[in-house]
Amino acid sequence: MSDTLKRAAAERAAALVSDGMRLGLGTGSTAAHFVAAIGERVRGGLKVIGVPTSEATRQQAEREGIPLTTLDETPELDLTVDGADELDGQLRLIKGGGGAHLREKIVAAASHRMIVIADGSKHVETLGRFPLPIEVVPFGLKATEIAIAKVLKGSGLNPDLRLRAKDGNPFVTDSGNLILDAHLGRIEKPDALAAALNAVPGVVEHGLFLGLATGAILATGEGLVELGQV
Ligand SMILES: O=C(CO)[C@H](O)[C@H](O)COP(=O)(O)O
């Protein structure tokens, strides 16, 4: 997706923000355009507070001069704007390509509205082409991996799990955990899979976001397309 399209979706989302809003600030290259657009509006006098979904977003928001808070101080948010790796027609998402899905999901769940900003190519018929990120605690990694593989097999899915790496080392999340990326191809029953993964000890959070997004702004070559309530 070109940066211009990402920015267009982000700027449309930023236009939905008004004074006094408590915002969840997403993570990733598309969300970064939203944070930049909000920063510009804050410098122009907009009064908002934000909860960042990652350390990277926190640093960007601080540079932009966006006042920040935490979910401990502000447990209820008006609007979260975040990117996604995939979304389907029911606004079900795969997130976590940037490894931030644990905080992203907590922040989205604390928000009255969650708007996804993404390019049109992320809109799919069936989720699963993008590998599903599963965040696990480092303790007992092998046992947890075996348990997840059993769940995948039991769900009729290929248990192709790969430990995410960065610069030759295991990728470590902001919360000190590891990520197993599940290369599934198609997820026909996301609700059942989400429930089964949630039941595995050692799984902290997976990247299936079900019933959280309330709207989406998709940037396509032909312009912006809106899904759900925007
Ligand atoms: O879930 C995410 C990070 O954990 C991102 O929102 C997702 O990876 C999309 O990123 P980008 O906008 O860079 O394509």
UniProtKB/TrEMBL annotation:
Substrate binds at T27, G28, S29, T30, D82, G83, A84, D85, K95, G96, G97, G98, K122. It is an enzyme of class 5 (isomerase). The active site is at E104 (proton acceptor). This is Ribose-5-phosphate isomerase A. The lineage of its organism: Bacteria, Pseudomonadati, Pseudomonadota, Alphaproteobacteria, Hyphomicrobiales. InterPro entries: NagB/RpiA_transferase-like (IPR037171), Ribose-5P_isomerase (IPR050262), Ribose5P_isomerase_typA_subgr (IPR020672), Ribose5P_isomerase_type_A (IPR004788). It comes from the Bacteria. The keyword Transmembrane helix does not apply. Belongs to the ribose 5-phosphate isomerase family. Catalyzes the reversible conversion of ribose-5-phosphate to ribulose 5-phosphate. The gene is rpiA. Homodimer. PANTHER family: RIBOSE-5-PHOSPHATE ISOMERASE 3, CHLOROPLASTIC-RELATED. Pfam families: Rib_5-P_isom_A. Its EC number is 5.3.1.6.
